[in-house]
Amino acid sequence: MAVHYLAPEIFHTAPVFFLTTDIPENDHLSRCLSHRLYDSNPEAAIAASMLLGHGGHRLLQEIGWEPDVYHMNESHALPVAFALYRRLNDPVEARRRLVFTNHTPEAAGNPRNSCSLLQRMGYFGDLPIDTVRHLTCQEGASFDHTLAALRLARIANGVSRMHVETLQRMWKDIPDICPVIPVTNTQKASYWQDEDCLRAVLDNDAARVRTVKALRKKTLFDVVADQCGRLFDPSVCTLVFAKRFAGYKRADLLLHRMDRFEALLAQRRWPIQVIWACKPYPQDYNAIGVFDRIVGFCRRIPNCAILTGYELDLSRTLKKGADVWLNVPRLHHEASGTSGMAAAMCGAVNLALPDGWYPEFARHRINGFVIPPCDTDLPEDRQDLLDADSLLDTLEKEVLPMYYQDPDAWTGIAMQAARDILPAFDSDRLVDDYHHNLYRENPSTPTTPPEHRPATA
Predict the structure, then answer these.
(1) pLDDT tens, 97-137?
(2) CATH number belonging to the domain at 189-425, selected among 3.40.190.10, 3.40.50.2000, 3.40.50.720, 3.90.1300.10
(3) How far from the centroid of its chain's Cα atoms is residue 69's Cα?
(4) Predicted structure pTM score
(5) Which of 32, 115, 202, 347 has most Cβ atoms within 10 angstroms of its Cβ?
């Protein structure tokens, strides 16, 4: 194992240590362990977790840092708990120092593995398997990593109130788990916010907000022209779907009602342009298939485009240039989501299903639009059709008519969203919540979701 150190003064961050196995002393397979995020090979994923958990614990011991709290983000770092238990030889003290964040209800983020495989690979360090079973209250052949974290930690959190409600339903019959509280995710306003838009909002200058948006749309459309050869119109309502492509996020939801969607794109009374941008994981072939389907669709529809190179710079350009920011996860599957927060900081109007962070923020037709969801007990293919209909209804009957017939009301929604998003969904609040409600042993009353408060300069 080797360590790369990012000093705080480089990017004005906390000190960051990067652990790697890609060193000449290792064989080829060992060197590859740190090459890929979320490796689909179970043994490689287990080994990466061992590097993070055991390796991270050993690093801190070597440099003489003794944290008051070890924070496990997901169960990837779970081996640190076993290293800590082994070193302290005191279950109560080890539990006092461990906290845990669950970031998703999806099965992929809550892994299970063969207990014998984990033991053979040294996942538990040199703790006897009987001790591991006793500490985690797991007796079967399969080892549940999330459940182990919930039983080893002093306290845990989900990343929105709705996420915690989902987790409580999932775990309501599971004994001996720690308390789980909400700490809703945020975005860093100082990075994402459009300062010109914010100044216009604080000055209550709607005309200036519209001028800034028109300029940002032109910048975005230059990217569309460069990548796709399409000339988009800054006067046309522009809807953007841009985020990681995962199945439950449903990037292709509009395509489930192809006839209705194509009719909407073809009509000229209230024209619309649609932009997708994405980054599927390299081996997520379902997501890659969705991407390919959208590419094929965009090739024959002149007012649609899909962009590649979805990194920070393009993400910021999309958020600043969007009129409408779309988020349509399958209900109860989006733990938080954060792209819409940054979009609101840039004068975009959110159009979303009420999942993750959005119910803590949204006031329909006041600071965004809420798509009525369908019954989540229905089969998923039926949910997709009904949610696509609901999305198209909201676009046709509410979003587009307001954009074209009442531009003052539209700009008012964008301005109200920019006011409401801060400080409630800025990272300063997030850090404060983690400090007071997760890291301290006697947490304060959880503050999320904060009340809507006006933004200040």
Answers:
(1) 999 999 998 887 899 999 999 999 999 999 999 999 999 99
(2) 3.40.50.2000
(3) 24
(4) 0.93
(5) 347
**CATH fold match for the domains 36-182 and 189-425:** yes
- Please enumerate in sequence order all residues whose Cβ is within 8 A of that of 226, keeping only pairs 6 or more positions apart, or say none: none
The secondary structure of the chain, three-state, reads CEEEEECHHHHCCCCEEEEECCCCCCCHHHHHHHCCCCCCCHHHHHHHHHHHHHHHHHHHHHHCCCCCCEEEEHHHHCHHHHHHHHHHCCHHHHHHHEEEECCCCCHHHCCEEEHHHHHHHCCCCCCCHHHHHHHHCCCCCEEEHHHHHHHHCCEEEECCHHHHHHHHHHHCCCCCCCCEEECCCCECHHHHCCHHHHHHHHCCCHHHHHHHHHHHHHHHHHHHHHHHCCCCCCCCEEEEEEECCCHHHCCCHHHHHHHHHHHHHHCCCCCEEEEEEECCCCCCHHHHHHHHHHHHHHHHCCCEEEECCCCHHHHHHHHHHCCEEEECCCCCCCCCCCHHHHHHCCCCEEEECCCCCHHHCCCECCCEEECCCCCCCCCHHHHHHHHHHHHHHHHHHHHHHHHHHCHHHHHHHHHHHHHHCCCCCEHHHHHHHHHHHHHCCCCCCCCCCCCCCCCCC
Res 441: pLDDT? 85
Strand-pair partners of 72: 100
**In percent, how much of the chain has pLDDT > 70?**
97
Fold type of domain 36-182: Rossmann fold (3.40.50)
- Positive or negative CA dihedral for 260, 263, 269, 272? positive
Minimal CA–CA distance to 274: which of 228, 310, 313, 316? Answer: 228
Give me the residue spans of the domains in the chain: 36-182, 189-425
Write out the two tokens for 252.
């292709």
CB atoms within 10 A of CB 353: 25
* Residue-wise pLDDT tens digits, 390-439: 999 999 999 999 999 999 999 999 999 999 999 999 999 999 999 999 99
Report the distance separating Cα 252 and Cα 74, nearest Å: 28
Cis peptide before 423 (omega within 30 of 0): yes
